[in-house]
Amino acid sequence: MTTISLKVPEVLLRDVDAEARRRGVSKSALIRDTLEASLRRKRGRKRITCLDLMGKRVGSFKGPSDLSTNPRYLEEAVLADHSRGRKNSR
Known about the structure:
Elements: H1 10-23, H2 27-44, H3 50-54, H4 71-83
Helix pairs in contact: 1-2
């Protein structure tokens, strides 16, 4: 095996020590197992899409069916913001 060295905060080191003692393994074995499990979970996880984040909200808006594709609606929204005196909201 290859050796690496890393710096960890004292609080984390105490947690690692306590968990290693509880499991009856070395700190190195605990860190290896934890890192491997974390990477394995990450590999198995699918990428989150915008649709996943929107969840139940998708399709809940009532309006024209071409709202997201018709440039006229964007122009109307920009003009409405301008007429209300709003500046760039970002």
